[in-house]
Design a protein that fits this description.
37% of the residues lie in helices and 16% in strands. By secondary structure, it is α+β, with helices and mostly antiparallel strands. It has a four-stranded antiparallel sheet with strand order 6-5-7-8. A three-stranded antiparallel sheet has the order 3-4-9. The longest helix has 18 residues.
Length: 379
């Protein structure tokens, strides 16, 4: 991830074209030598270098300001098709006056629906599905955001568009829809009855009131203290709901990767404090043991399901930002058994491919290409 923080003074100064060309070549070299697979999702190695060649030709001799250079780089990086490989743009956001669409969106299937509003007179919009923004169809918006930030799968664009992401703030909305630049925005929503309604919002407003959300008749398990939790949706316990909002904050992850560096240690401390509501201990073993265990949670889930003869398990991944996929392996083990888990990991699932670059292996002590580790794939 490359960090590019906005700075008005720096942004007004052009960077010489020669320097920008050197930066692009260095960036391409870093990607090719450090990314495990920079080609396949973008059409292959020739396609990668074709995009690189076009990018180099687009740089004027007199240079560009940083913001314009950044805009040229984003599609090149996004074309790799990896949500972990991106340029991290720090936009100048205004929390009280965000300037985008004044609605909260959440994911339902492969769409976004209005889950909350700012103004009381918009409560009737809750439950409607986003159809278009400024006459741009929803599927085109998904395609556009995928060219700004890389995605791992078909749900990536939805995650990038929901809640307080690209649609909520004016600077990010302008990155998505550069042809829009005014204090009003027009969208189309599809009502639960199937009607398409056009609504225009003022965006130059301050939001001082709490948002209005419609309460669900379904009790969703809380992930306030842990990234994963479950409950049953009916009194007969025939339907279970497992919510997984992340794949980092669980004990087995830290047992596997350790807490030897500052980043891992701070993560572990934060998850400990979140779960136990007290300051983390200095002892590392005590710290790790105080983090919620996926093994314990999933084991309890399947035992309760078996005892209640539960018929349906719903797994809610809508807020899942990724992490260590060992968690998924643990769940597969408890649901389907060891043999099925190994079959899933070894039969052309992608886990048989070593996903580490030469540069990574050179820097990892005792790193060996020929040694696949089925249980610790990170993704």
């Amino acid at each position: 991830m490359i960090d590019m923080k906005s700075n008005n003074q720096q942004n007004s100064t052009k960077i010489k074209g020669k320097l920008l060309l050197e930066d692009i070549k260095q960036l391409a070299d870093i990607i090719e030598s450090s990314h495990p697979d920079p080609y396949s999702k973008g059409g292959g190695k020739i396609a990668f270098h074709y995009r690189l060649h076009k990018l180099l030709l687009s740089i004027p001799q007199e240079g560009l300001i940083k913001d314009d250079f950044q805009k040229l780089l984003l599609p090149f990086i996004a074309a790799i098709g990896d949500g972990h490989t991106r340029i991290h743009v720090k936009y100048n956001l205004n929390e009280k006056q965000p300037g985008g669409i004044p609605l909260y969106f959440d994911i339902i299937e492969k769409s976004l629906y209005v889950s909350g509003v700012i103004a009381e007179n918009n409560k009737d919009l809750i439950g409607s599905v986003l159809h278009s923004v400024e006459n741009i169809p929803f599927d085109v918006l998904c395609d556009r955001v995928s060219k700004i930030q890389g995605i791992d799968n078909e749900y990536g664009p939805l995650v990038n568009l929901d809640h307080k992401n690209y649609l909520w703030n004016k600077p990010t909305l302008l990155a998505l829809i550069p042809e829009w630049n005014r204090d009003k925005i027009t969208i189309e929503l599809k009502s639960p009855l199937g009607e398409i309604n056009e609504i225009t919002f003022d965006t130059d407003l301050e939001y001082n009131q709490p948002s209005i959300m419609k309460e669900s008749i379904i009790e969703i398990p809380s992930t306030e203290k842990s990234e994963f939790a479950y409950n049953f949706l009916d009194k007969n316990q025939k339907i279970a709901l497992l919510r997984v909002d992340g794949m980092i904050g669980y004990r087995e992850n830290f047992e596997l990767v350790g807490i030897d560096n500052e980043f891992q240690l701070n993560d572990a401390k934060n998850y400990y404090q979140r779960f136990n509501e007290k300051q983390p201990p200095n002892d590392k073993s005590e710290l790790i043991n105080g983090i919620p265990s996926a093994t314990e949670t999933f084991r309890s889930l399947v035992i309760e399901m078996k005892q209640s003869k539960t018929e349906t398990l719903i797994i809610d991944l809508r807020k899942n930002g990724g992490g260590n996929s060992l968690l998924a392996n643990i769940l597969v083990y408890f649901l389907f058994g060891k043999n099925k888990m190994l079959e899933y990991l070894t039969k052309k699932s992608g886990f048989e491919i070593i996903k580490y670059s030469d540069r990574y292996l050179e820097q990892v002590q005792n790193g060996k290409k020929e040694t696949p580790n089925l249980m610790i794939e990170l993704g």
